[in-house]
Give the backbone structure.
Amino acid sequence: MNWKEFATDYLSFSKKEQIAVFVLVALIVLVFLAPTVAFKKNNVKAKPVDTAWMTAVKNLELKSTDAKNNFSNGYDDNNANYYQYDKNTNNGFVNTKGELFEFDPNTLSPEGWKKLGLRDKTINTIQNYLNKGGRFKAPEDVKKIYGLFPNEYERIAPHIRISNNATTNNETIYKPTNTTKSNSKTYRIIEINMADTSDFISLPGIGSKLAWRIVNFRDKLGGFYNINQIAETYGLPDSTFQKIKSYLKLTDPNVKKININTASVDELKTHPYIRYQLARPIVAYREQHGLFSKPEDLKKIMIVTDEVFLKIAPYLQVQ
């Protein structure tokens, strides 16, 4: 067999065989190259994310927070200006440019308080206090005004000048008899079911927070029927209650009553003396035995002791 015959018989391929060889070679190449390509793909570094916009947003948030923190009490310590919060402005604050001058808080007009930079709500509280016969005896008394920020007071305190004129003719005065002339101080007697926070603030040892708690407690009860109920106010020390007790009076003991034959559990449980623990048994007993003929029927409920009944009885009715 010569070389030409050998080449023709063994080294020549048909068209189908050529295609098969080409496909086989291609597969072999892919098998060898695939791991390399995959490895390179896994090691390609991720394209850095553009975080510039995130940084900008955070900076804006920080600036907004700093602005509110700097003016959290409504006063900029670095400038002699007063600021009020206004959600409609760009930064949330409006500069009222309070002006400092010497003044007597007992005679200063609303316009004068406004000139000092106080807010309208605080000015109204002051005017209500004065209109009801209240009087500032010392600069420290101004500090007790409900809604007056601490640094507002610190800003105006050096300029307070209180005259030594006698109290107004319409002011009811109680003067302790067990104090010496040198340290005695006069306070108005207030009606506990009619007094507002300003009235309570005028009493010794009562600040804006305690005054608000007393009024809030009274409103939830439906009124006081006994002066000693004020001592139950949350956070009121007994020493402070004993100090103000002599200045309290109760001329109208009428209170808001709850109809125990129609009130729901939700209505009953809002009363500080009843709560859910007593409201649910009352309604359950009524549903099982029918309407109550008189408030004393509550004593038939096991958990209603004589002590509990005497405490809640003034607030109950069956009609």
